[in-house]
């Protein structure tokens, strides 16, 4: 089985099969990510924008880890979407913080290092919620924690990560 990075290199060269495999793998995560951040009426158009953006920006791929690169691209697109919709809110702040974490990863593989400073449970929550697109409902079923508790833990974790980023 090929890695995401191998598939992306093939896609950059024009392989539709490679694109199909990336789409199949990442489509649920992209949709989950969008579903949490936009209204249902806005989600489908934005979902299409994400895949169109990947196609248009594929030449910028520099053989770095694919998932962080792809999600940074998607975050930039989402921030542009928020601005066009006139939404400057707490969600955008959180998105910008996560974007900074991803940029840290792209520069020096700092994401894993930064996440490893967290307790294992917090690492898992951040990965599942922000990177894999799990909903609070899905995390509640998996962890047994209430949604309110999950929100509180993620909020505290984000504050801790923000503090570490700005030390």
TrEMBL record:
The keyword Transcription regulation applies. Belongs to the sigma-70 factor family. ECF subfamily. Residues 22-87 form the RNA polymerase sigma-70 region domain. One of its GO terms (molecular function) is sigma factor activity. The keyword DNA-binding applies. InterPro entries: RNA_pol_sigma-70-like (IPR039425), RNA_pol_sigma-70_dom (IPR014284), RNA_pol_sigma70_r2 (IPR007627), RNA_pol_sigma70_r4_t2 (IPR013249), RNA_pol_sigma_r2 (IPR013325), RNA_pol_sigma_r3/r4-like (IPR013324), WH-like_DNA-bd_sf (IPR036388). It comes from the Bacteria. Pfam families: Sigma70_r2, Sigma70_r4_2. Keywords: DNA-binding, Sigma factor, Transcription, Transcription regulation. This is RNA polymerase sigma factor. Residues 111-159 form the RNA polymerase sigma factor 70 region 4 type domain. GO terms for biological process: DNA-templated transcription initiation.
